[in-house]
Amino acid sequence: MSIISSPAAPGQDILNTIEITENNEVTFNPRGKIDVMQANKSRNQILPAIIFLLPGFVLFFVFFLGPLLYSFRISFFDWNFVHPDRSVFVGLQNYTDQLKSPIFQRAVINTAVYTVISVIVKMVLGFFVAVLLNQKLRGRTFFRVTYYLPVITSWVIVSLLFTYMFSGQGGLVNYFLKDVLHVIDKNIMWLADPVLALAPVVLSDIWKGVGWTALIFMSGLQTIPVEMLEAAAVDGANWWNRLVKIVLPMMRSTLVFLLVVQILGGLNAYVSFQLITGGDPMDQTHSILTLMYRATFERLDFGGGAAISYLLTLFVFVLSIIQLKLLRKPAGE
Amino acid sequence: MKRSQSIFKILSYTILVLGLVIVAIPFWYMISTAFKPQTMVFELPPQIWPNPSTLNNFIKALTTDKFGLYFLNSTKVTIISTLSTVLISSMLAFAFARLNFRFKEPLFYLLLLGMMVPPVMLIIPQFVISHWLNLYNNLWGLILVYVTMNISMQTFLLRGVFEDVPKDLEEAAMIDGGSPWTIFTKIVLPLSRPGLAVVTINSFLYSWEEYSWANVNIGDSANRTLPIGIALFQTEHLTEWGQVFAASLVALIPVVIIFIVFQRYFIQGISTTGIKG
Q1: Closest residue of chain B to A157, computed from CA coordinates
Q2: What is the pTM of this model?
Q3: Which of A95, A110, A137 is the last residue of a domain?
Q4: Tens digits of per-residue pLDDT, A266-292?
Q5: Residue A229 lies in domain
Q6: CA angle A182, A188, A194 (to 5 degrees)
Q7: Which H or E element spans position A77?
Q8: What is the CATH number of the domain that holds A211?
Q9: Which of A137, A164, A331, B172 is the most exposed place for a label (fewest CB within 10 A)?
């Protein structure tokens, strides 16, 4: 590694720096010192920079940026996977085909419903768990660790588990509803119903995700000064007022962060849909990305699949802009 | 005042225990099913512990269907991906935190683009490229993509960590004639162990549990990883839930062990990235 630096030069730079700063009597001003240092250093650091950046950026270009742009191209073609040169340019047809397709529209609705329900429930439950675990309680660590187990359990295992629990005959959920709670008279065939099949998907996400939202809320809660809440309590503010007037406004950035990450996660739902419903029955229970998978790898319509993924990116992009607006607001106030 | 506080405490415990039960039921159901003989898999009412219980599911799951091979493949992929991710993203982070070069800011923002695009979205073009580069059906195809999908976020994390390492030490090393590589390996890395632990755990979890890309890129059963093996278990042995969950539990053991040992880093890590399917 010795090729990339000339040992004498950097040391010389430092000595120069110290001298300059001493002459100007600004040794106590680190900013001036660093500016001079950086100016001196920049000449020597192009080679090391290349060496440090190269492995990462080669991967980034070959497996991320290249594919990202390439798939944009694919989305305008009737793509021939075996002979890409024989692909036919179709303009926006892949996009219009998808937007007109009832299966795509259904997938968008499924994804939206899934996202809205699971995000709201996870936020509310996660917040209450965080508030409860934020007190001095015996066994706090135990609760935290246990609530966290679903988070680290893989999506594959969670999806299979919920498929099993929601089995039509002999499943645990039907047993509870029918034989314990007596709210239904006969078993529900969850996975054979185009609407009810979404229940295990949504519930698996909630079960897996509450621990994470609770954790983030907890770190947000810890930034609120206890004295402030105590002072409010002394002034007679009740529990609800303290929540709405102090806690929620002070956790604004946590709320926005959680909301954004959860919504993006929801829109990108894939494994649970794929393994629990697989789009069945009759392609009525796809998420946007399972439909992309089906278009591409089962119907070999690569152009259509790529168009779906770019339509999703468009939604995500619009949401990201809204997010930036939301985040920027406090600074402007 | 005191009384209302203790009422609140009792209420808290009640709700927390209720939550605990909800979290535990699916786990309990999974574990008990793994010990059920096939004939009892759908027997109701469910027993707290299956009687008779059996280890057959574990024996069958582990001995048939190349499960051992899947485990080995997953181990290989996870170890190599994790080590490469840690090395490559700390090199990137060092350059962005400590070196000066042209286009530093634009390159950094370009790299951050990787945090915004969901991995599943890139499956189609990655599949095409994997065929071109002869990486289809190859564990290296998984490793290279896993590292790539991880470096943006992990570089972002580590850049923050490296910036906190005091600069004085670096200056001293430079006076002694240390190259950037020496500063990187002898000063910055050793002082950033907690950050590196977080990155290690993040990429370990990602590589061990990844399903979507492995499902697309691996065709031959000899190259399957655990998540694919387990997911296929369900379709190939339609009703053999005992075996499915025996296999799942075996796959879950390394994660739980690492979680309990490195709990602090784990929670820190997941709170920064958020694990998403």
Answers
A1: B248
A2: 0.83
A3: A95
A4: 988 999 999 998 887 888 899 999 999
A5: 97-332
A6: 140
A7: strand A77-78
A8: 1.10.3720.10
A9: A331
